[in-house]
Specification:
single chain; 418 residues; alpha/beta; Rossmann fold; Nonspecific Lipid-transfer Protein, Chain A; 2 domains; seven-stranded parallel beta sheet; five-stranded mixed beta sheet; 15 helices; globular; oxidoreductase; NADP
Length: 418
Amino acid sequence: CLPSTSLFTCRKLAGCTLFITGASRGIGKAIALKAAKDGANIVIAAKTAEPHPTLPGTIYTAAEEIEAAGGKALPCIVNVREEQQIISAVEKAVKTFGGIDILVNNASAISLTGTLETATKKVNLMMDVNVRGTYLTSKACLPYLRKSKNPHILNLSPPMNLNPMWFKNHCAYTISKYGMSMCVLGMAEEFRGEVAVNALWPKTAIHTAAMDMLGGAGIEKQCRKTDILADAAYCILTKPKTFTGNFIIDEVLLREEGVKDFDVYAIAPGHPLMPDFFLDEKKFSGSQQEGADGAKVKTEAAAAEPSGPVAETFRVIQGAVTEEYVRSTQGVFQFELSGDGGGTWYIDLKSKGGSAGFGKPPVTADVVMSMSSTDFVKMFTGKLKPTLAFMSGKLRIKGNMALAIKLEKMLSQLNAKL
């Protein structure tokens, strides 16, 4: 990949094969076109072969657009409710392109109706398409994904939020979308180290034909374009397979990747945007009108953090950070952790107020420490001395050693809280 001024112009997906359900229109097609610009192969696994009376696009018109954008397209008639259609399309994809590198589970059915108003056939449709379809498509693709160099499964599903307000008005729909998210939770752990499995969800409503049907005329002004999800998906799918088990919100990720102008994604720039389902305002406060305030972005990103001992340790550290620590330390520490709950984490003891959490630090790190997540937890709970960890090769340190020693002093004060 050649260095570039833009975040999104490296041809990282050239030659990769993406199997995308529901790719004939909307979000699925936008993700397909983004990858097509790199020269990717796209399997359009969708059920619209004949033009729909109200919805635009078929698998064949999508194929033409993908080819025009620089990709190779394989249109396949797939209703994800039919297991045999999924299997046949997967076999055809492997025969045509030699394998599958990425699966995007985008196909989805929606009915925002209460328990007594939801017809049984609608309940069956949502459970079959959203949960069962995602599960069976993943199952069919996994044997081929495991052979890929950097395989990913990406489900278009939300972080699981058990606030009853998200269940009371459309219980069946919520159960079906959280079923997709539970596939992420389970498969990410089951195939850790082999296949990355993540979820992506929009912070605000996205303008699609389905949204027009649900919201009626004028709704588009409160929405963003599908491009924001395509850009966020591209970021995820070009990360290494160690980036797994995350529930990602499009805007949060793109801010972390350095995007500052979100007006380009708005249908009507400056118009108030409608938040999407399943995201509580308090969790995802701050929006496109506000600057990229580091602390705010990190609070938002907390919803996508992994769970487990490492995450718990960072939560305690975050709670223990004081102005005094920031004043006396004046350093930013990045941790590259391998194993369960691993990935990139940080402690910022330089910026006003200080912060700690998952992802890259808001400013460039002074010290980068690499170790296993198990040893990290031991170190922060006083069971492993940093000096000993360093001397025995369990801890590798790059950068300012004096600051690393300062952090060791802070650890001894924190151990009581951990």
